[in-house]
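User: Predict the complex with zinc ion.
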Amino acid sequence: MVSLSIGVDGVIPIERYEPEVQEVFAEVLSCPQCAAHTGLRLISEQDTALIRCPLGHEWTDPHITAPGIRVLWHHSAAGMAPVLRPPDALTPIALPKLDEDRALLPRPSDDECEAQPALWDWELDVHLHGDTPALVESLRIARSLANFAYYSDGGLFDSWCPELGGHALDAHMSIVALALAIYDCARRADQFKIGWLPLSEPLAALLPTSAEALRTVRPLGFDEHEGRLRITDTRRLDQADDRQWSAWCAMARRIIHSHLNVVDRRQPVVAHGRELPSPTPMLIERARQYWPDDTTWYGSR
Ligand SMILES: [Zn+2]
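Assistant: Here is the predicted structure with zinc ion placed in the model:
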């Protein structure tokens, strides 16, 4: 994992909760040895986050996490103002952008749609329920899951971040592979609320034994502009060699694992002295963030 280091201008405000008096105090981060509170440097080493003062003292603080430093680093590399957010705050989309032609596949003819009546009916149900084409909703969920994984999994961050020698195309195709897995699992289950699928289902669809089938999934979409794959993505799905496709599917599985890791760390709920069985984690629970461009970032408009 690449170490990141960011110098911070000015002070770093934090809020500290004192359980004894049950109050939150506004403070600035300061060195426990020399009390320096400016000229601090934030450093991520593997999954550890360090703060270093100008005199070289180093310490840790629960407000400063390795994922938080990755988000700061991404935003400053992208020319955005770096804002330190609380460790559990929702994080704006921080994925690398892929600049390419956005044209979608042309709409299939009515004859082609009618030749796949079960698929057509299911896509219609999804659209009627959520006012969003099935592929657009699958991509939205995949992108939201990937955004969390990007900063919480340092290996994915290194692989995708262009400023660290990573590839925006790998980020994009991992999201497309995950979206196709979500779309295909929901279709097979005849589930029109796509978010109500267990995380484990697309994970299984992305395993080497089953993922080859995803390369031929071609959503029908609804009008001239939405719900179908980009022409560029279709070409990559058709032409990528097996090694490349396996790498994208492995990254897509890693996205899901970063969420399962969070779910696995939860304390079990105990009632009447007994541990309750943990509920099966669903996509909707982990892809709960909506962004203003969610339904347009992929389409041609
Ligand atoms: Zn110091």
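The chain has ten helices and eight strands.
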